[in-house]
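REQUEST ID: PR-0412
SUBMITTED BY: lab tech R.K.
PRIORITY: routine
TASK: structure prediction, single protein chain
INPUT:
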Amino acid sequence: MTDQLHAITVLGHDRPGIIAETTSRLAVLGLNLEDSTMTLLRGHFAMMLLGSGTASGAAIEDALAPLTSDGTLSVTVRAVVADESSASGGTPWILSVHGGDRPGIVSSVVGEVARVGGNITDLTTRLSGELYVVIAEIVLPAGVDPATLDAAIQRVARELGVGASLRVAEADDL
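STATUS: complete
OUTPUT:
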């Protein structure tokens, strides 16, 4: 049987050991974790994994079923097609936004990135009291003028009453 790629999500109330239990169950199946991200969202655990191996989606679901037995976590598994093209090409940049919290910050600022064909490869937001912070890794296609994009982002940021910066991503940032 050839290797298959599966996207696995684990969501729910945080507790110690979720990552260890999930990854050990996947290792028993021989699943190789190719990409992953995990975060806490106000006490709620969120993890996404891409794993490859010969295990079927049903076998992965069965192996992870004990995680969901108490009702505090949910797990989803779905087969995906490997696509290396979205990870390459273009220039990586870091977009930072900070200011008073209000609706529309993310959609307005990332709308400018989308308008020029930029791809957001990672996005994190945090609310700390009244301060809202957005950090996005973006890839700009060849031919996009970063100064023009930055001017558009600065215009939107002023309208929202927040600060923003766009800078080339250094190797340490990624």
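NOTES: The chain has a mean pLDDT of 93.
REVIEWED BY: pending
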